[in-house]
Every structure is written in C-alpha cells, then in structure tokens.
Amino acid sequence: MRTEPAGTPLGDGFHLYDTTLRDGAQREGISYSVPDKLAVARHLDALGVGFIEGGWPGALPKDTEFFARAAAGELVLKHAVLVAFGSTRRAGVRAEDDPQVRALVDSQAPVVTLVAKSDRRHIERALRTDVAENRAMVADTVAFLRSQGRRVFLDAEHFFDGYTFDPDTAVGVLDAAVGAGADVAVLCDTNGGMLPLRIAEVVAEVAERTGFRLGIHCQDDTGCAVANSVSAVQAGATHVQCTANGYGERAGNADLFAVTGNLVAKLSMPVLPEGAFAELTRTSHALAELANIAPDTHQAYVGTSAFAHKAGLHASAIKVDPELYNHVDPSVVGNGQRVLVTEMAGRSSVELKGAEFGLDLAGHPDVVTSVVTTVKDREAQGWSFEAADASLELLMRSALGEPAATPFTLESYRVIIDRGVDGEVIAEATVKIWAAGERVIATREGNGPINALDAALRAALTSSCPWLEDVELSDYKVRLLSPKHGAGHGTDAVTRVLVESTDRAGSWTTVGVHGNVVEASWLALVDALAYASGARQRRAQSGACSGSGPIATR
Amino acid sequence: MRTEPAGTPLGDGFHLYDTTLRDGAQREGISYSVPDKLAVARHLDALGVGFIEGGWPGALPKDTEFFARAAAGELVLKHAVLVAFGSTRRAGVRAEDDPQVRALVDSQAPVVTLVAKSDRRHIERALRTDVAENRAMVADTVAFLRSQGRRVFLDAEHFFDGYTFDPDTAVGVLDAAVGAGADVAVLCDTNGGMLPLRIAEVVAEVAERTGFRLGIHCQDDTGCAVANSVSAVQAGATHVQCTANGYGERAGNADLFAVTGNLVAKLSMPVLPEGAFAELTRTSHALAELANIAPDTHQAYVGTSAFAHKAGLHASAIKVDPELYNHVDPSVVGNGQRVLVTEMAGRSSVELKGAEFGLDLAGHPDVVTSVVTTVKDREAQGWSFEAADASLELLMRSALGEPAATPFTLESYRVIIDRGVDGEVIAEATVKIWAAGERVIATREGNGPINALDAALRAALTSSCPWLEDVELSDYKVRLLSPKHGAGHGTDAVTRVLVESTDRAGSWTTVGVHGNVVEASWLALVDALAYASGARQRRAQSGACSGSGPIATR
C-alpha cells in the first residue's frame, strides 16, 4: 500500500493535496456522479498531484461507492495516493466501534485525513464536549487508523480562529494527533476569514513551538485563499490543500492551479512531475467541464483571458517586446497570449490579429480602417468578436475583397415548435436554399428549434457538401444581453449565440446576434459553414500535402 | 475645486481609489457607453469611495466626452473627487506643449494621476529613452499640472519588478514626482506577478527609505491582488487602487469590494462613510449589471454564494449557532446567509428552507422525505433549485397537499419562426388554454419565440387574470447543460431556463428544464404565474392589511 506520492522532484518532502472531490463538491452548482469523480481523479493524477482526497466514505453513499470502485480497479493512480476524509470517533464511543471510523478503514484508502475541532468554542458549543475528550477522540482515532496500517493527516478545523482565541487548546489538538502517529498537522482556515500576513505569522509560530510537519487549508471568504496558502508555504508549511479552480463552499477554496502556478513559477518549487506544468491550463478546463461549470475566463494563469491584452497601448508595446508585459511566459502553463480586437483596439491590434490568421493587413491601411469600423459598429449592437475568431477572420477576408465562401444561398426558413394535447413537444424546421445551382428544400425534426434547423440545413446540403459530415457542432452558448437603457422585459433582450464547430482538422468559433434566438443561431451556423468551406478551398488550392494539415483552433 | 475626499472618518488620511472606469474597462467583454460611465461613477460616489478615476481624456474619445459631460454638470459627486488618468509628456517635448498633457488640464478634473515607467528595462526598451530623461518627463509634467492647480498622484508602473531589478532607478522616479509636487507615489504591480509577503517587504522598505506617502495598485495575475493590496496597507500604504468586482485586463485588478471588506471587517479601518458598508453587496451587483457581466456568485463578501451553506453537516450546525460558521455577519455587507437545498442537503436543510417560506415541515417527516427525493430526482435531470426558490416553494406546497394555484390549464401551444425571402424574421405563438371555465385561444407575435409565447399566454389570460398586468418578466437566463456522458452535438443539450418575475410586491425566480428551450421556458413561465397566483390568494385570505405587503424576494 503506497502512502507517499510518486514522481515529483520534491517527493514526500512537499505535498500537493487536492480536495476537489470532497471540499470542492460543496460548491453551489456542483453535483458529481461516481463516473465524474473517477474522471476527475484521473485528470488530477495525470497532472501529478501527490494526494487526491476522494470523499467521505460512510457519510455520502456516492463517496462510499467511489472508494469501492476505485479499490476494485477502476482507478489506477500513477502519481497520486488516494485519501479518505472523515471525522474522529464520536464522544463516548471506542474508535473501533464507531461505524464512521470503520467506513474509513473499509474504503481501503491508504491515507486518511481526519477532521477535528481545534477552536474551544466549537468544541464546547457545536460538539458539546470538553477539551480533554476532544483530544482523546483525536488520539484514539489516529491510533486506531495507524494500527490498521494507514497514514494519517489531521485537518485542524477553525485552527486560526481557535489559536487566536485559545492557543493552548488549538495546539493541544495537534499534539494529540501527532503524538498518536499523525504525520501532518493541517491548519485550516475553515471560515476563510484570514489575511496572509497573519497566516504566515501563525504558521511560523506553530512550527517553532511544535516542530511538527504543518499543512495549510484555506477558504476564500476574504478573497485571499491563494495568497494565504502560498504565504503559509513561505512560512514553513510543506503540505497544501487545494481544489481545482477553487471550487468549494461559499466563496470557495484555494485554487489548485493558481497555487501551483505560484509555487512553481514564483517560488521555484518543482511540485509537479517533469513536463506537467504545461498541462495546467488544459487540466483546469477539463475539470471545469466535468464540474459542468463555465471556466472562469479571468482565472490567474489558466483563464482564456489571463494573457489577453486589450489596451491599444499594451498591444502596440507587445509588438515590440512581449516579455515586458506578461508576468510569466504563457506557454509554460499551456496557455497562450492573445490580442483582443474590440472597439478599444487600435489599428495595431487588428494588424496583429490579421497576422495570426495569416493575413497581411499591414500593407492595406484602408482595409484596417474598414475592419476597425465594422468591429466597432457591430460591437455596439451586441456582437463580440473576442471569442469568435472565425467570424472575425471572415470579416477581415471580406474586407480584403475575398468572395464569401458560404456554400449556399438562403431563400427562407421556418421553424415550428408544437406542444400537443398529449404534452409531447415537437420541433420541426424547413429550409429552402440554393446550393450548387439547385433549389433544395429539406425538413427535419430536432429536440429543439436550433437542433432542428441545424439538421434541416445539413440535410439540404448533403449532396452539394458531402464534407459537412465531418463538421460537428461541438459547443453552443447563449447569452442574453439586456437592453441597457431600455425598460424592456427579460425576453425582449438581444441574444448573442456562440457556436463552436469541430472537424478532423481543428475547431473554430463563430458568433451571431439578433433579437430572435433562432436567427442569432442561424447567423452563427452560417458563419461556421462559410469558415469551414473557405478553409477547405484554401487547403485544396495549396495542394494535397497541406490538405491534411490542421486548421488552427480559433 | 475640491481635491480631497469627503465624508469618511479617515478623511484624506486614507484613500480608497477606484479605477473601474479606466483600468476596469480593459477587461475582456466590458464596453461602457458614456451614460454607463456616468452611472458607474454615481454608484461609486454613493458607496463613498474617495477618488473615481474616470478615464484617459485625450486618448479615448469616450473618456474625453465623459469628463466634458461631468464638468458640464451631469455628474455631481458627494463623497468622491474625480480623477483624470494620463501619461507624462513625451520625450523631448515641453509638458505645456504636449497635447495629451493639455487634455488632462482641459478635462477639468481636480486630480490627475500620471503614469510613469519605473523599471529601467521598460524605460530603455519600450520607451526608448534614458533614466535621466524619464525623470525629467515626470518632474516637468507634475510641475506643470501643479502650476495649473491640480493635485497629482504618480502611478509608478512595473514598480515591484523595477525595484527588484534596479532599486535606485525605481525610487528615483518617485523622487522626481514627489520633488515636483506629487503627493502620493503609487507602487504598481502592473504585470501582476507579485506575492503578498514580498509586496509588504518592498512597501515597508520604500516607506522607510523615502518617507513618501505610498499607494498600491495590484493586478491579479497570481490570484493575489486583494491580498497584495491589503498587505501593502498593513505595511504602510495609505492609498489603495481597486476596481469594482476586480474588473481589469488579463486576470483583472484588486476587487474593490473584497479589499474594502477586509479593510473594514478585518483591519477595523473605517474607509467608508457611516452606513455605506451595508451597501457593498448591492453596489457590486449594480456595477455588474452596468458592465453587463453576470455577477460572480462566489465572490468574497458580496457573491450570492458567499454565505451559502450546502453541506448537511454545516447546515445542521448552523441551526445551532450561525456565528460559528460565517467569518463575518453577512448583513454587515448587505448580504444574507442562505441554506442550499440540493441532493447533498439533508433533511434539516429542507426544514430550514421551509421555515424561510413560512412552511412548518418539521412536523411532517413524510413531506420532508418526499421533497428531498423529488429534489434529488429533478436535479439528476438538470433542474437546479438553488437559484429558484419560488419553484422550490411550489414543490414544497404541493408535497404538503396544497392544490396547485396555476390559473389555467394548457391544451396546446405552437410557435412558428419564419424567415422570409426578404430576410425579415417573424416569431408567432398560439396558445390554447382553459381559464375560468372557458377555452381561450390567443396568438401574438414577439421578437423571439419565448417573447411571443409569453405575449400569447398573457393575452389569453387578460380577462381571467387582470392582475397579470402588474407581473413583469424582469430577467431571463438560459443555460445549456452538456450531456455529461453522451457524445451528443452542442445543440442536443438539455436547456435550463431561469425566469425572474417582478410585481409591485417583490420578485421571484422559477426554473424549467427540457431538451427544447421553448418548452423549458414555458415550464418556468407557468411556475412563475402559479407562484404569483398562489401568493395573491394567500394575501387575499389573510385580509386586506397584509394584502399590500411584499412577497419576499425569492
């Protein structure tokens, strides 16, 4: 039974400990299934964290099942060690007789993290016991788990508040745990109310006073969880508990990716295995996907905006020297620098963006002017090209005089949504188009209006665009833009739709805006096909060799 | 010309300085109109910040217009002083001859914040001048602005990186500015790469070395902007620059609300006028609305989840002693504690939630069981009751055996979206319902399918529910939930719709989930009407007096 993490240069000397599956799952809006939990654990292991806290077996049925399926071979960990979380025995019961403690042993996790109260007010008012019995509960439970061959960490709940209120009681709990064989005393800012200078002060004092190996667990209620965690490490903690993207109850926990980014890039601590640091961004987005939460675009290190420059001033300076304007090279965390084209952007942002697309706009000042003007006008109506590079590229190509590559002309479409007396809901779409010189009419059903329209358009294009079979609509986002100065009802709003499409060669995003969600979606779908068609034509023109090359992801 | 902030107990001794309108507007996705900017400034002034940086007159036409309209009387500030931001004169030009410097004077802002380079690498590589000329640019520009009667603050760009690389050059820029009459030297972590212990160390060193009044301006690239700002204040800075909700370029800036929360609640610094602290949450949400960005639900202090407790363990303990589980009393920042009812919630969360609705579930264990089961089942299908209290209340009332208050029975509906040959898009909805014993058919058009359906249903209910005229659909949110384990296309996803409705008495939120966005919206609309109808009936039953009382906001 391996109890130490494998594979990082710091080995057991530093613990990167993830509790996404337990504390992270407390976030409003997250609900992991057992397969989700297994998938999350695999991503965390692939990234190279040392410990993965899988849940609270015995308290939550899903968590019990997770540990059972992990033990049965569904989860094979290369770097990480699996940890079960649970509480100490209840007051007045022997540890080996407490079913919750037995469930920890039954989980077969090689490491157990026990939570114990360390604030006297909580011991007396919430637990309704006394300091001595609380210590005994900790010591007995740790000793029992050690006798079962488990490595034990202690999460000292409300430690910082408790230490400030009554330091002897708080430290006494750590003494009880370590004395019975726990080997990390994790100081928890459970209510999340601390600031970094005080965190560093307390960690240093407790390290000095006890000599114990200390860990840190921070909640984000002051907006300082990342800073508090890093400050604790600088003050001597060698075990840090985080959650992916900072998921957690209330304001959340310390974000694993920001903490790791800071430890590696700022404090030069190689806490991940060789090569894994560049997987930070990808892992963050994959775990957002599994949590079914839109990634935070402005997240430090891993957000899609984390290295995005909008201001005209910066954009021109970046042309000169990118190193001066990023705190780290975005590629070390698997992220990339972007220049945003918005109404605020000057001509040099548009030129830089054109160059990203392989278009030389520098020699065409009139085209740059026309693109800047169109972007400003459209954005004033609710369009946004920041996230829709393919639509922006089409706009630039059109400004350069390239003919549109849309593989059809629309005559009309109609969508009907019918809820019958039986309660069944049907969506049906009919499109009438001209493609390859012929008039084509196609009708299809779908599970909703957009799905039906997409299906009907694909059906109408089957013979003229057989390559469409490879193009998949991989993501679809709807945003309602409230009329800013009007007094309109909620359903009057302008709708912005972003469509992400994928084929064998890559993926691309397009945008459509209209008062009607169906028409907004239609505009984005048409751009998506025009982009695919144009890219195909250019690949064909540039010869067979490059025909199989990827379309850049945009 | 007032140059000092009015109204806080700390007066000019501490500066809470907001740059939402300049640095915040750099955030990807934000585009303020001039009326937006005026509205933002009014909210910030009402909250009681000391300084409002309005923009960069002369560089951005919108900002020039903002200052002109403010000076013409469209902006009357009670607490705050308006600040214009700009750069020093260009190399080799006299300050009074530089049109950008003149634009700062012309803005009529009583305070000017000048940005200057303080990192030798930026001076030499980006500005392409030398250290001496850079100092002269700073000194000349400050002196000229002082001669025009302006108070001047200096933003020392890239100060922390510059100080680490070449402290004498960095401090030399501060010397030049203060020597010429600037009265705050603001140390900027422009690339956002710092951590709090180093920030505190540098601020203390520079304060010791210069004796100058220091300010702090942090970007959030390490996820530490709030912590860095607060640590700088603890180390001696008496001027802190923030943006509402941390809006800003890349990962953003230090969040005004978290910084203020920490200064007031953690460091006991009364940086806001009497009574204003309780406006923190409302102001944050209003400014998110003006930025047209969904509020961050997990934001420290002001997020709707900031005091939301989900775990069964915590929810039961909160019944005993709420003080033990919140780092501050949520009401001091105008926020509230919430208990979330989710599949993870135990019976006590459901009981507590029922009590919030005025329903006594404690005496009905079978009803609690049924509610817990229904919530779990529905959430597994994509429903979410966390944000839809009105739907949850309907579900609880139904479990208690109350008859449904829906004021009609649906026979069928049909929605048609037609884009004709002329490119015009029409949405038309027909509903067939039974209301007050009669069959009613109504057809209406709308700017989109949901709007048309809402209009048709209202038309069909005109005679049976005249009170509906008061009920307005005030917000409408669509979320696509990707099929988690399927291989479906983007438009196959299940759609969750949240509808917020308002009448004279309050507002309430309902939820609908379906594969078809129109049906999902229909379900949420029907719940909204059922909730309004039930609340009306109960008010009528409880007599005329309470009939005019508010429905609680849910």
TrEMBL record, chains A, B:
Q: CDD domains recorded for this chain? A: DRE_TIM_LeuA3
Provide this UniProt record's keywords sorted from A to Z.
Answer: Amino-acid biosynthesis, Branched-chain amino acid biosynthesis, Isoleucine biosynthesis, Transferase
- Entry's EC annotation: 2.3.3.21
- Catalysed reaction, written as an equation: pyruvate + acetyl-CoA + H2O = (3R)-citramalate + CoA + H(+)
What's the protein name? Citramalate synthase
Q: Which InterPro entries match?
A: 2-isopropylmalate_synth_dimer, AIPM/Hcit_synth_CS, Aldolase_TIM, Citramal_synthase, LeuA/HCS_post-cat, LeuA_allosteric_dom_sf, PYR_CT
**Matching SMART domains, A to Z?**
LeuA_dimer
Q: SUPFAM superfamilies under this entry?
A: 2-isopropylmalate synthase LeuA, allosteric (dimerisation) domain, Aldolase
Domain Pyruvate carboxyltransferase as annotated: residue spans: 14-281
What family is reported?
Belongs to the alpha-IPM synthase/homocitrate synthase family.
Q: Which gene encodes it?
A: cimA
PROSITE patterns membership: AIPM_HOMOCIT_SYNTH_1, PYR_CT
The protein's enzyme class: transferase
Q: What NCBIfam families does the entry give?
A: citramal_synth
What Pfam families is this protein classified in? HCS_D2 (PF22617), HMGL-like (PF00682), LeuA_dimer (PF08502)
Taxonomic superkingdom: Bacteria
Pathway as given in its UniProt record = Amino-acid biosynthesis; L-isoleucine biosynthesis; 2-oxobutanoate from pyruvate: step 1/3
